[in-house]
Amino acid sequence: MNPTLLSARALHHSYGHTPALRGVDLDIAQGEIVAVTGPSGCGKSTLLHCLAGLIRPDSGQVRYRDTRLDDRSEAARSRLRRTEFGVLFQFGQLVAELPGAENVALPLLLAGASRRSAAAAARSWLERLGVAAAADRLPGEMSGGEQQRCALARALVTDPAVVFADEPTGALDSLAGEKVLTELVRIARERGTAVVLVTHDSQVAAYAGREIALRDGAADPLTLPVGGAA
Prior knowledge:
Blueprint: E1 4-15, E2 18-29, E3 33-37, H1 44-51, E4 59-64, E5 67-68, H2 74-83, E6 85-88, H3 100-110, H4 115-128, H5 144-156, E7 162-166, H6 174-191, E8 194-198, H7 202-205, E9 210-215, E10 218-219
Parallel strand pairs: 3-8, 3-9, 6-7, 7-8
Antiparallel strand pairs: 1-2, 1-4, 4-5, 9-10
Helix pairs in contact: 3-4, 3-5, 5-6
Keywords: ATP-binding, Nucleotide-binding, Transport
GO molecular function, one term: ATP hydrolysis activity
Domain ABC transporter: 6-230
């Protein structure tokens, strides 16, 4: 069993008077692919945002390796997301004014890499993910599947220890979604990257090795392994 890389203990978070998380505990091992599932409004995205340091929980702890994440400053959490974490959102969230290669290179540039090395790494990842032709095209000139694979390249370009994917195929047709998931799982397994995959789709969850079901902000006690897809 690989060592625990990321953990949450007794996470609570509310939006106003509406609870989103109610005492969630979670452990994710190095190289593990975990699907967080449940209906809309059950707290899936809030859990991912807490684990990735995008928001702080109201109470409870998030630990990454030996470091407590939830009590670090926003600047420190941002640095961690640029170096140790990769984030893939449902709609990619590419910068509309930048071509594909520059979008992918952004995390490296923000971390202080040279423009030449960042551009080379970006183009290498785009080629690896089968979208080299998108390197010089703006997001508006790409298909939805191309945009999402560019966004996946951006999430992977820093060689992160953890990738957080929030409904990564929700805006794609089935074929494009399958390509994104297949590449994400393949690369995660090759590189020993942990993946937290938020989805309401059982077919997407089947790509994971384990499933955590949320219901009304709490982990379902009947959560079971899903076995993982090849």
